[in-house]
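Moderator note: this is an archived Q&A kept for reference. The question asked for a predicted structure of one protein chain; the sequence and the answer are reproduced below.
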Amino acid sequence: MMKKLVRFGALVAMLFGLGLSGCSFLNGSSSNGVSPPVEPVDEVNGNNSAERIRVFSPTLETNIKRVALVIGNEDYKYMNGLNSPKEDAEDITKKLQGFGFSVIHATDTTKTGMEVAIGKFKKAISKFNADESRKGEGLFYYSGHGAQDDNGINYLIPTDAKSVSAKKLGNVAVALDRVVDVMQLANNNEANIIILDACRSNPSSDAKGIAPGLADIGEIGRSMLVAYATNPGKTANDLPGNRNSVYTKHLLGFLDKPELPIDQILEDVRNAVKQETDGKQVPWHGSTMVTDFIFKPY
C-alpha cells in the first residue's frame, strides 16, 4: 500500500532532538497567523491521494521527551464532510512543535492510515522507557468524526468508513482505547494527554443507533488527562466559514499563556466556548495527573 516509507531510525533520531531547517510544506502562513509546520523528517502517503502521515521535529529544544500524534479527518468519502479538522490539526501541530514536541501529523486518514499513525506513535512512546533520566510526556489530538457504540465504547471514524451503526463501529472505525493503551506503555510518563474535538453530530444521515456525542470515558488511566470539545453525550459546533472549530480556536488562543497549567487552560477554554455558544457547547475534561503540566514551560 505504501508508496514511500523512510526508515524508522530517522524518527528515533528526531525524537531525541535532531531538528531540521524550517522550510514550509505549504505556501505562506495560515489566515490566523499560525505558520505551517516545518519540513517533515518522515512522510507516508497512503493509497488515498489525500491521506498524508508526516513526522515533524520540534522547533524548541527541551530537557523533556515530548511526542504527539495529531490527526485531522475532514474529507469523508461516504459521510458528511467537516469544515475545519485539517486546519485544526495543522495549527495544533505548529503550536506543539513550538513547545518542544515531535509531532506525528496525519490528515484525512483511512482506517489503515490511522493504524499506521498510531503504530508510529506507539514506537515513539515505547522509547521513553529506555531513558529514565528524562521524564516523558505524550499527547494525542484528534479533530474529526467520532461516535460511541451501543456498549459506550468511543471510536474515531476514518475517512473511508462506508457506513456507521452502533453495533458495527468496530468494523469500520478505530477505538479510542487503542490510543489510551499506547500511552500507558510509557511507565515513566508524567503526562498522557488526550484532546478530542470529535463530538460532532451524527456522521451520516443513515447512521443507525448512534447516540449523540462521545461516551464518558469512564476510569481514566494513570497520569492521564482526557478533554472533550463538549460534555459526554452532547454534540459540538462545526461552523462553516471558520478556519478552526470553536473549541480548537479557543484552545489555540489559550495555549500561549506562559506557565499556565493545562487544567487552567482547559477551564478558560470551557468558559470561552460556553460564552460564544450561549451555553449550547460546554467542554469537559477529567484528569488523574498529580503534577501540573505546562505546555509552555518558560
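Archived answer notes: The radius of gyration is 18 Å.
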